[in-house]
Amino acid sequence: MNSMSTFAQTSPFASNPLQTKDELSKLLVGLLDPLAAHTSPGGARIHLGYTATHYDEAAAQLEGFSRPIWGLASFLAGGGEYEGHKRWVEGFKNGTNPESDEFWGHMRNKDQRMVECSAIGFAIAVAKDKLWDPLSDKEKKRFEDWLGGMNDKDMPNTNWLWFRVFANLGLSRAGSPRFDAKRMKADMDHLDTFYIGDGWSRDGPEGVVQLDYYSSSFAIQYAQLVYSKLAKAEDPERCEEYRNRARKFALDFVHYFDEEGRAIPFGRSLTYRFAMSSFWGAVAFADVDLPAPLTWGVIKGLQLRNIRYWAKQPGAYYPDGTLTIGYCYPNQSMTENYNSPGSPYWCCKSFIALALPETHPFWAAAEEPYPTVLRGTIKALSHPLHITTNVGGHTYLLSSGQQCSYPVKQSAAKYGKLAYSSAFGYSVPVGNGTLEELGGDNTLALSDDNGETWKCRRDTREARIENGKWLRSMWYPWKDVEVETWLVPPHPDSPLWHLRVHRIKTGRPLTSAEGGFALYGQGKNGRALEPTTGEAFGTFEQGGLGRAASQAGVSGIADLVVSSNGRSGRVIRTDANSNLMVARAVLPTLMGEHEHGTANIWLVTGVFAIPSIEDEIGAREGWTKEWEKRPSVPKEIQDVIEALENFDGAV
């Protein structure tokens, strides 16, 4: 093997096969051990870096301390032995002691400390003998007072309410007088108002349209499942309802994962990484049998393949084994203002299967691949307004209708793009000027100042799935500009393409830039891709076509309107660190100039993509034949176009 093929490209955990409970335990210990060097003398704080958050440094260091507990507590609950757990016991003593230099601080309204109480409450509930019982009565009293201090505080009207539920679960298991049953029931009753059907809950009250990983693995579904096991004796009816929600939800959620184990990056907090798959572990923890084809072997595969993928990503870890902030590599551009250096350890929620004995069906079952019956499928998901597909060996979703209900950095990129891919990820802006800075993959970017600045879809209106076949929505970037968009998934005649139709009505001249999927932009020799033709690695531009091929696969875009003022194809080398998956990317793009007036402007776009297959380099042989199979506009959409006007241009 060429030594340069592994130079600076090896994760400290890549050699772990992650097939058994013991191997998963070793990964957890491998993540916990390096934290010792970053832990305060009294054990209550873990300091992993110097980047800041909107909340205070003490809370950030509490976050570093608390989040690994999701994994530690599960490991201990399942019979695991870890001498290092004593660091956390000492941390509980000092972090809750107002006289200690390491005191975490009393909780205030809407305090970040509340978030970290969820892992702490879970730990008391499942590993009380190792993490609570060693404390003295005086230490327990201080701990109870600190943890119960959130019961009379205001909280955001979001999934945060679950964190107080878990704090009270822990207090209940400890037999603490600070347990507030009335408060917990009120929180639970309110959280249930977020439920919208078919297993789905939104992350907030009516009017909130976020249905991202917080509605599943990061918070709501995960919490419901854990609660359904821990509180089934006290609250059996609600617990059974949560189990039934999981059964329905799982049949949708499975479509967000590909055969290699990757989940589709979408929304915020993606630095939590393999927490994206923690729902599957929570299903096992709660002993919930899922409908076919989701056997225990399939559930095990969905969970372990995702963790396996992340164990192999060198950019997810520093050399000492601690986690970086970012996605597939360190990246501050894609983070939120609540991501501290300790935030990524939310991924430890995916270790919950360690709480189960090896005789549990999750561990006893043979791991199964992604279900055959779910391959080559297209599914319209009415609640999140997504159409998912894995036709042509590419798992991605088409999206319209979601946006964050409060300010979040790069929210247009995280929720407003037209498509999101498990293989190609998505990109975020790294500046506010050039197209290279924009990272405009899977967007229709518009400029009214000759490309000085760009607007991308963020506030999507009137979104719906029509006929169960495609997405249709409106966007109003300026008061005198409206954009209507149809997003059409692959057709059997052109399986590697999806179709976009845009109607623009504008009162001002516009420049448009429509991007396909961003692609790794380096060749086999480690140099930037050069122009080429045919199937060789490189970039290709011709008229209304733009395309790039590299070891990651092929990405292309085509203007499907034949007219005198058609768009030109380009391949843009996006600025470094804009894409979540690869730090150096290229982006096939269509550029156009559009005059203002009363007439509608129609853009019809074909987007082509085929990712490489695991352990192979580049797209499969013969992809150029698929490239020639352009998609066509469905008759129903063509009828809408013709009803609006005499369509100018042949498709």
From TrEMBL:
Domain of life of the source: Eukaryota
A Pfam entry, by short name: DUF2264
InterPro entries documented for this protein: DUF2264_C, DUF2264_N, UCP014753
Residues of the DUF2264 domain: 20-370, 377-638
Name listed for the protein in its UniProt record: DUF2264 domain-containing protein
